[in-house]
Design brief:
324 residues; 7-stranded antiparallel beta sheet; 17 strands; 35% strand
Length: 324
């Protein structure tokens, strides 16, 4: 990739993350009498049920740009309770139980159960393959076999903070890596579990454009912004391409007193396309091989471009709000 193409790529990121965020903020209306009146974007999925147990039907709706919970009113209208920029697939299966629990089954057949409690929607359980999770009792049950030979084992899960809707991706693999880190590090602080979940959302929703930071199976991808005593942490990734470009990405987290996060994503690109011209010059002019690198560049008439730097700043409160 040339420097020109790299700049175009990062400019596209700016358009996606910058323009997209301001557009997302207008996705959901504050009130309305029907689902069609509640969103400025096309609704791709929805579920109805009594979340807050007041005897009035409530509504959960999803678009390609986010999802939201609405509480119903006696007069037949709805009032916005919580909106996020976390989308829910049109292929997901949504339902609400008799106890007001929202059940989301992803296209990968992972199940997430959310209940309205403590003025929020909190993950209380779910299922992944033959494993079921209960975040109220903090137990995991693994089943194997079938019929009369079917068996199950119960395990304790590490302690964790409440997982609020929008603060982690709807992906069991990404979520479970948080518990894996708890075991590996001998205990993860609650704030780290929160920053981990938010960071995984950024990865899976491609809010970070660096392939070495987006692979959960790699050492790079398994990194996370662990927070220090000041509530600050960062994670890095790099892509090195000789004769083409280097790309570096750093994501900074800082927890705010109100519990939200300040997030900065910083990109730096270095043009390395000059390296082919430099090698060719040195091969053709062996008399300059003993000169210093800067002198060789001067003899070859090569100027190394200055690195290009780009930054994106957000406040995260369940959704990513871009800051100037």
């Amino acid at each position: 990739m040339t420097k020109h193409n790299l700049i175009i790529t990062i400019s596209a990121i700016a358009l996606t993350l910058g323009g997209g965020m301001s557009a997302d903020a207008q996705t959901f209306q504050s009130s309305g009498k029907s689902a069609a009146e509640l969103s400025t974007k096309e609704i791709v999925n929805q579920a109805e049920g009594d979340f807050n147990k007041d005897g009035v039907k409530d509504l959960f709706i999803a678009t390609d740009y986010g999802s939201a919970f609405y509480f119903g009113k006696a007069g037949g209208s709805y009032s916005l309770f919580l909106d996020t920029d976390m989308p829910v697939s049109s292929d997901a299966k949504l339902s609400v139980t008799d106890k007001g629990v929202l059940r989301i089954q992803t296209p990968q057949s992972d199940v997430f159960l959310f209940r309205y409690q403590d003025n929020s929607f909190v993950l209380i359980g779910g299922k992944h393959g033959d494993e079921s999770y209960n975040f109220l009792t903090n137990k995991k049950v693994e089943t194997s076999g079938s019929g009369a030979s079917r068996t199950s084992e119960t395990y304790d899960m590490p302690k964790h903070p409440p997982f609020k809707y929008g603060w982690f991706p709807l992906d069991w693999e990404a979520l479970w890596y948080g518990f894996t880190f708890i075991d590996e590090y001998g205990g993860m602080k609650p704030d780290d579990m929160l920053s981990f979940g938010v960071y995984r959302r950024m990865q899976l929703e491609e809010r970070i454009d660096n392939r070495n930071m987006c692979n959960l199976e790699s050492d790079y991808g398994r990194g996370f912004p662990a927070l220090d005593e000041k509530g600050e942490g960062s994670v890095n990734g790099e892509v090195l391409n000789p004769y083409s470009y280097n790309s570096f990405c750093t994501v900074y987290f800082k927890k705010q007193p109100n519990g939200t996060f300040k997030i900065k994503v910083k990109y730096e690109s270095e043009d390395r396309s000059y390296e082919g011209e430099y090698d060719k010059f040195i091969d053709e002019h062996p008399e300059y091989q003993d000169l210093g690198f800067d002198e060789q560049l001067e003899k070859a008439g090569i100027t190394i471009p200055e690195p290009e730097t780009f930054e994106f700043n957000y406040i995260f409160n369940g959704k990513f709000i871009e800051q100037e």
